[in-house]
């Protein structure tokens, strides 16, 4: 009988952050104007040194979607995936997705990115379900505001619990793959936490607690 496998997107299924990979291409395609690009880069760099939060940087990023319809955003990210993101799929995670599929597991992407960012990845890898941060639309046009909460930290844990309950499974029987310490609440809750190419903070936790560590170009140790 299969179980549940949860996957983070940025830094996990993708070896790097989609926003960083697509930054310059997004400017060239007109998704990001010069002013918001400068604000986005500044906020991102400040978040890396702890002077702003990850959520601060993400909220600036969501504002880039303002003025676009959902079909336009979906097409844009399919184009970006085909041209730029697919080459950054993690070889190790592609292998893990294949293994979970062969085991009959239900696979779910949980990402702080907007859902339409991850849709091409989910289709390409054959992942069953996707839950991402939702953005607001008014009269069919994106406002750039977040609808609810960013799917990060405790919010990602709550979503995973809801999916597991729906499937009649305990999180202790589930697996979660992530690269970032922000996902620690869910990593702590599942039976099989896997740190994928982890950032320094998560690597320290993973080694201290005996979590499995999976390099992007490596094999998962038992």
Question: Gist?
Answer:
This protein is α/β, with parallel strands linked by helices. It contains ten helices and eight strands.
Just give the CATH class. Answer: Alpha Beta
Helix content: 40-55%
Q: Give the helices and strands as they follow along the chain.
A: EHHHHHHEHEEEHEHEHE
Q: CATH H-level name... which superfamily?
A: HAD superfamily/HAD-like
Give me the CATH architecture, please. 3-Layer(aba) Sandwich
Description of the structure:
The structure is a single chain. With 222 residues, this protein is an alpha/beta fold. The chain has a single domain (4-214), classed as HAD superfamily/HAD-like (Rossmann fold). It has helices at 18-21, 23-28, 34-48, 54-63, 70-85, 91-102, 115-125, 154-166, 184-189, 200-209; strands at 4-7, 106-114, 129-133, 135-138, 141-146, 175-178, 192-196, 212-214. The strands form two sheets. A six-stranded parallel sheet has the order 3-2-1-6-7-8, sandwiched between helices. A two-stranded antiparallel sheet has the order 4-5. Strand 4 (135-138) and strand 5 (141-146) form a beta hairpin. Helix 3 (34-48) packs antiparallel against helix 4 and helix 5 (70-85) crosses helix 7 (115-125). The radius of gyration is 17 Å and the shape is globular. The two termini are 20 Å apart.
Task: Name the descriptors.
six-stranded parallel sheet; alpha/beta; Rossmann fold; 18% strand; globular; 8 strands
């Amino acid at each position: 009988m299969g179980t549940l496998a949860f996957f983070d997107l940025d830094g996990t299924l993708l070896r790097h952050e989609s926003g960083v990979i697509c930054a310059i291409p997004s400017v060239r395609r007109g998704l990001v104007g010069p002013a918001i690009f400068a604000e986005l880069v500044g906020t991102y760099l400040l978040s890396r040194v702890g002077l702003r939060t990850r959520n601060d940087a993400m909220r600036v990023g969501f504002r880039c979607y303002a003025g676009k319809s959902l079909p336009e955003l979906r097409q844009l990210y399919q184009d970006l995936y085909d041209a730029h993101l697919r080459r950054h799929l993690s070889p190790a995670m592609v292998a893990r997705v294949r293994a979970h599929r062969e085991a009959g597991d239900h696979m779910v992407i949980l990402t702080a990115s907007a859902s339409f960012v991850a849709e091409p990845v989910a289709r390409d890898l054959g992942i069953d379900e996707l839950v991402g941060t939702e953005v607001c639309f008014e009269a069919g046009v994106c406002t750039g505001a977040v609808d609810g909460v960013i799917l990060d930290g405790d919010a990602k844990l709550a979503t995973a619990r809801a999916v597991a309950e729906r499937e009649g499974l305990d999180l202790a029987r589930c697996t979660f793959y992530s690269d970032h310490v922000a996902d620690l609440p869910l990593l702590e809750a599942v039976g099989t936490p896997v740190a994928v190419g982890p950032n320094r903070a998560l690597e320290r936790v993973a080694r201290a607690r005996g979590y499995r560590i999976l390099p992007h170009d490596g094999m998962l140790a038992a």
